[in-house]
Amino acid sequence: MTILAAIDENERSRIVAKVASDLAATYDDTLVALHVVPQEDFDEHRRSIQSIPEFQDYSLTQEEDSAERFVREFVEETADTVDVERFEARGRVGNVTDKILAETASIEPRFLVISGRRRSPTGKAVFGNTTQQILLNAECPVVTQLSDQ
Q1: Is 109:3 a contact under the CB 8 Å cutoff?
Q2: What's the mean per-residue pLDDT of the chain?
């Protein structure tokens, strides 16, 4: 089986990487670390580099490869118990919630490990809440660490 860790570019993801790698070691499972670049971030990045000749054809695949490299380095630097033989890094671009849920449906992990921020009910209604949507829609157990940041 696998443990799926959803990693983003904030400090909370350090806990996600550590918990997920500990779970993978405990259950002797493969650790799959996923980093999803939001579609709007990719679009903005692509627009910002299009004026550079060698990046005029910057593609979705290149962005996903970059996200994969990021998550691989992040987990290997952060988690103490990563077995590189049983570790996969994946990068995706799109709606973060949808991509995490799609990956969960695809690999059917033993656990999905995510982080989240505590928000007021108004904040959730106005800004949405990826963590809440994942908790409500994932078809596997979800391990989460909520923080105030």
Answers
A1: yes
A2: 88
